[in-house]
Amino acid sequence: MRLSLALITLLALELSAAEPALRWFKGNTHTHTLNSDGDSTPDEVVRWYREHGYDFVVITDHNFLTSVDSLQGLYGAEGKFLVIRGEELTDGFEGKPIHVNGLDLAKQLDPQGGSSVADTIQRNVDVIRAAKGVPHINHPNFGWAITADDLKKVRNDRLFEIFNGHPFVNNHGGGAARSLEEMWDEILTSGKLLYGIAVDDAHHFKRPWDRDAARPGQGWVAVRASKLATAELLTALENGEFYASTGVALNAVDRNRRTFRIEIRESGGARYTTQFVGRGGMVLAETTTNPAFYEIRGDEGYVRAKVTDSNGRAAWIQPLMLASPPKK
Length: 328
Prior knowledge:
The structure is a single chain. The protein has about 325 residues and is an alpha+beta fold. It has seven helices and 16 strands. It has an eleven-stranded mixed sheet, with helices on both faces. The chain is globular.
C-alpha cells in the first residue's frame, strides 16, 4: 500500500520531533575551592560560573570530594545551570606531580601510587572508572611530569588537557620538552585517540588583577548534547562531541569522512585563521574564510582543527580518526 505525501510528511515530522535537538553547553571541568587550595568557598566558586555565562561546572578539589547537592539546590536550574561533583586525584612518582580528574564520582577516592609515571596514571584512571566516574589527565607539562610516551600507554581514558589556565603549567613546552599540542599530535599519529580539553584550573577568585593567580575563565569546553544533564554531558565528552577554547566560540562543527566544516561565531571585530592538522602535526590547510571548510582525502591519518583569532585566543576541534582507533 502506498503512503500519501501528507502522511509521509507527518511521519517525518514526528520522527524529527522525537529526536531532541543538540545544543552547545559551556562548562569547566577543573576548578578548586577552599576545601583544597582555592581561596573561595564552594558557594562563591559556583556563583562565579553561574554569573559568567557558563552552563555547568565541575568542582575538583585535590583529594577531596566536595558535596554539590546544596549548591545545585541553590544555583542549579533545569536546562540552565548544573553543578557536577568531582575530585582531582593528586598523586606523584619520584617527585613528579601526577594529577587525574575524576568527574561525577560515586565516592571520594585516594591517590593510588604506582611503579612508574604511566602506571601511576593508569591506577588512578582505573579507580576512577571503578567509582563510575570519567577520568581526564591534567596538565602533563606541570613539573615536566608526563610525556607523550606515558600517555600512549594509558588505557581506558579518552581525555587530557590540551590547555590549562594555571600560569605555571608549561602548556607551550620549552627547551627539549614538547608543547601539549605537539604531544597531542604525536599521540594521535601513533593511532591512539585522545580528545583535548581546555580548563581554567581556577584557584584564585579574589585576585583578578594578579597575573600569577590561577584565575577563572581562562579555558573552557563547549559540549554538544541533547540536554543539560550529567550523563549526557560526560558521554558527549568521551565521544569527542565538544570543542575546547580560550575564548573563540563556534556556531557549528560538522565532521564526516568526506568533509570538515567549522562555523565561527565572530565577535568584537576579531579576525580568524583556521588550520586543519593531520598526521605528524602537518598543517593540511589554512584558511581565513568563515565557515572554514576542508575536504578530506582519506590518507591524512586523522584531521583535527584549530581556530585562532587576532587577539591570541583559540579553539581546538577534536580529531576525526580516519583509521579505526583502538578501543579505550
